[in-house]
Design a protein that fits this description.
Chain B: It is found in: Cell membrane. The structure holds two protein chains of two kinds. By secondary structure, chain A is α+β, with helices and mostly antiparallel strands. Chain A is 21% helix and 33% strand. Chain A folds into two domains: 9-96 and 170-240, P-loop containing nucleotide triphosphate hydrolases (Rossmann fold, 3-Layer(aba) Sandwich), CATH 3.40.50.300; 254-375, Beta Barrel (OB fold (Dihydrolipoamide Acetyltransferase, E2P)). Chain A has helices at residues 62-70, 112-122, 128-138, 154-166, 184-201, 212-218, 236-241, 246-251, and strands spanning 24-33, 36-46, 51-55, 77-82, 85-86, 97-100, 172-176, 204-209, 221-226, 229-234, 256-266, 269-274, 277-282, 292-297, 303-306, 314-326, 330-336, 342-348, 361-366, 372-375. Helices cover 73% and strands 2% of the residues of chain B. In chain B, helix 2 packs across helix 12 (255-280), helix 3 runs antiparallel to helix 9 (196-225) and helix 9 packs antiparallel against helix 12. Chain A binds chain B through residues 18, 70-72, 91-94, 97-99, 101-103, 105-110, 118-119, 122-123, 164-165, 168, and chain B through 182, 184-185, 187-195, 198, 202-203, 206-207, 209, 285.
């Protein structure tokens, strides 16, 4: 391609894309297929060196976003920058970006060694053997160099796919549901390993997944995507403790969302009326826009006490134990409230108190600081549906 | 417990019809052919009367007398295979990767010629390449061909006819192996700094090799033994070994020579194919 006189300001830096380094910036990206917008006006910055996760259900646009970053799709509108270089229309092979594909996409006709050497050879690197050997020991599979991909187990193929990508030391490593095909135990192990490798090699990892636990285990920053947009972005703890939308509250872990009304102020706290019972919560944790809101409390933040005992913090009375599941580390209760809602409560089995029985009358209490507030017009079912395709993966 | 015995027998029972068919229509004729190939004429007998005399010299004579036709057969078959590959690869590639919703229609078009007889299609080619067809006048008007030169009755016509007739046998296996390539491996090559051409050379072609091997075999083997194209589109100067065998059998009624030639052809093809498969190393590709 002839590099002519720059047309716009964004062309001013005439760095060859393949050497581009820095933060990844997506600016107002939209990808449409006919009337359907897979990605809708998305703006996002991924800092250099971070482990970033795009989390969302299937069809939320996370894979399309990843493919646009890789160059396998072109955005309908918007631009993608790597550092100062505009790579929106750069061909995939000219981007300093490598991908670990879902199901790995190893070259079946090449040995493991040649699979890993592929990218190095294309760029005419000198010390191919040395670099391949090094990355093979990093993923702890040096003895498999002369095998063919079909002779490897799923977990081994996964590591080779990772090795094939990181050996190129890309500015950005994209991981497209890389652990989806592995069984649960292996997945947990690989999550820890991936995180360790990311620290070891110091590359920027962008990880696409629908598994919230996987995203929370590995990523520094998670962007939760839904219907082509980012619902919320932040550290795993931020997202979990202070979700801004019902979708995030339900998609990351479980939430109890109770309909309420803001009834007044009390210093830095709001007084909330939940079906006639008053509770308080910090103002800064409310995302309500008017007086109606949903009070959100995570199931493990609740405490259960027998009616009549003295309790601290926010309290809701009139509960009745509807169901008890003992699962070892905790006991999960379903508590029916007077207004007809059933609340989930997880109690740690650490106090020697025997579990409550079905039908017992109880009080529910929690620390006001654990409450989060959502807009009163939210769909409280958002993010709770389980996609049958994603079960058993 | 009693289930085990019938279970063991089932595969053999399933094999039985195929085996019976092959025995009757392949093994027996071959044995008969082998027997005929070493016979000599009965002295004082009629034409077509032969007796067994284990005259292995039949093979030597048959080969020495027809070296030219043997050579021509393999040259023509090789050329037809190369041309068919050159035409079929882009075709199969386009159908597999670029055809979208037209994929099935195009595949039907590839096999559509089979709906008419092989013989008729070859005769049609005689017309296409003839003086009144459009090929010769067009080439002449473009001065790509002399005014006196013709195509019919030449090697060009024979090879063209064979290329055309065996094209579907090349296209279908190529399509099958190209279509089986996981598109993500192609994307992965692009992701790993390979441009379109390099991706094609390093990934697409190697992964389609099983199809290339199958297609070339399916084209070369019947082409080497073919006599219809040479008979209809050629001249005495383009005679292939198939034509010799045909005329020995049906015109000269020289069964032993025809049989010896058939065996020699079979052996030659077998040797070439074995060498080819060894070289291509297909077992590693699958």
């Amino acid at each position: 391609m002839v590099r002519g006189f720059p047309k716009g300001s964004r062309q001013l830096v005439s760095i060859d894309p393949i050497n581009a380094r820095g933060d990844l910036r997506l600016t107002r990206i939209t990808k449409s297929y006919g009337d359907f917008k897979a990605v809708d006006d998305l703006t996002l910055t991924i800092p250099k060196g971070s482990f970033f996760a795009l989390l969302g259900p299937s069809g939320c646009g996370k894979t399309t976003t990843l493919r646009m970053v890789a160059g396998l799709e072109e955005p309908t509108v918007g631009s993608i920058h790597l550092g100062e270089t505009d790579i929106t229309t750069t061909r995939p092979y000219q981007r300093p970006i490598n991908t670990v594909f879902q199901n790995y996409a190893l070259f079946p006709h090449l040995t493991i060694f040649e699979n890993i050497a592929f990218g190095l050879r294309r760029r005419g690197m000198k010390d191919v053997k040395e670099q391949v050997d090094k990355v093979l020991s990093l993923v702890e599979l040096p003895h498999l160099a002369q095998r063919k991909p079909t002779q490897l187990s799923g977990g081994q193929q996964q590591r080779i796919a990772l090795a094939r990508a990181i050996v190129n030391r890309p500015a950005l490593l994209l991981l497209d549901e890389p652990l989806g095909a592995l069984d649960l135990k292996l997945r947990r192990q690989m999550q820890i390993e991936l995180k360790w490798i990311q620290r070891e090699v110091g590359l920027t990892f962008v990880h696409v997944t629908h598994d919230q636990e996987e995203a929370m285990t590995m990523a520094d920053t998670i962007a939760v995507m839904n219907e082509g947009k980012i619902e919320q972005m932040g550290s795993p703890a931020d997202l979990y403790d202070d979700p801004e939308t019902a979708f995030v509250a339900n998609f990351l872990g479980q939430s109890n969302l109770i309909k309420g009304k803001i009834d007044g102020n009390d210093g830095d706290n709001l007084v909330i009326d939940l079906f006639g019972q008053k509770i308080s919560m910090p103002k800064k944790r409310s995302h309500a826009v008017d007086s109606s809101l949903y009070a959100g409390i995570r199931p493990e933040k609740f405490r259960i006490s027998r009616t009549g005992t003295a309790v601290r913090g926010n309290t809701l009375t009139g509960g009745r134990i509807e169901d008890v599941s003992y699962i070892g580390v905790s006991t999960q209760y379903v508590v029916a409230m007077p207004w007809g809602q059933e609340l989930m409560v997880f109690e740690q089995n650490d106090d020697g108190v025997p579990p409550f029985d079905k039908g017992e009358e109880v009080i529910i209490s929690w620390e006001p600081n654990f409450t989060f507030g959502l807009r009163g017009d939210e769909d409280i079912e958002a993010g709770t549906e389980v996609n049958p395709e994603e079960i058993g993966e | 417990m009693n289930m085990t015995l019938p279970k063991v027998r089932v595969p053999y029972l399933l094999l039985l019809p195929g085996f019976a068919f092959l025995f009757t229509f392949f093994i027996l004729p071959i044995a008969n052919l082998a027997q005929t190939s070493t016979q000599t004429p009965i002295s004082g007998g009629d034409t077509g009367q032969y007796e067994q005399s284990f005259a292995f010299s039949n093979y030597v004579n048959a080969f020495l007398d027809n070296r030219e036709q043997f050579a021509r057969s393999f040259v023509y078959a090789t050329l037809a295979t190369i041309f068919a590959l050159a035409i079929a690869y882009p075709l199969a590639y386009a159908i597999a990767f670029k055809a979208g919703k037209f994929k099935n229609i195009l595949l039907v078009l590839v096999v559509a010629p089979f709906f008419t007889s092989f013989l008729l299609r070859t005769i049609a080619w005689k017309q296409i390449l003839g003086e009144e067809g459009f090929v010769v006048p067009t080439l002449r008007s473009l001065h790509l061909m002399g005014q006196q030169t013709t195509i019919t009755s030449t090697a060009v016509a024979v090879v063209a006819g064979m290329t055309y007739n065996f094209l579907p046998f090349m296209t279908l296996p190529l399509y099958a192996s190209l279509e089986r390539i996981d598109p993500r491996t192609i994307e992965a090559a692009g992701d790993l700094y390979a441009n379109g051409l390099t991706t094609f050379r390093r990934v697409t072609v190697p992964l389609s090799l099983p199809g290339v091997v199958a297609g070339t075999l399916l084209t070369f083997i019947p082409a080497a033994g073919d006599y219809v194209n040479a008979a209809i589109l050629g001249s005495p100067n383009t005679k292939m070994i198939g034509n010799v065998i045909e005329s020995r059998y049906f015109k000269i009624v020289d069964y032993p020579t025809a049989a010896a030639l058939s065996f020699t052809l079979m052996a030659a093809i077998l040797i070439l194919v074995t060498l080819y498969i060894r070289k291509a190393g297909t077992e590693e590709l699958v």
